[in-house]
Amino acid sequence: MTPDVNPKEDVWLVYDGECPVCKTYCKYIRIRAAVGNLHLVDARQPGELMDEITRLGLDIDQGMVLRFRDAIYYGSDAIHMLTLLSTPSGVFNRINYYVFSTQVGFKIFYPIGKAFRTLLLKLLGIRRIENLKKNSKTSVS
Is 139 part of a structural domain of the chain? Predict the structure, then answer.
């Protein structure tokens, strides 16, 4: 029996569940079936993956986190990797691919999207997650 050369692996995407931009992105993004299953994790809910992200010093308010094949991708790298894992089906995924599949694309458009998200959250009165502050408060106690 030969080992599976290309086994399916699950993909974990950690995002802000109260952010309309993040929720919309997660609603429409689709990964290729050959990659595995996409699991969406709301960063506002406690869990082991959020604990790990905080231990690594990653500020979830500054970017999504993607876990794939024992690697952690953060911010624009997470979106870029997710784009490479995505299926080309659907208008959203095709646009996403053209915008974020190249370094030039994600270096230009990711900061614009992040700034829009920050402004929108402020306008809607949605509080930040502040996972790094929560960690420093529990470390001091």
Answer: no
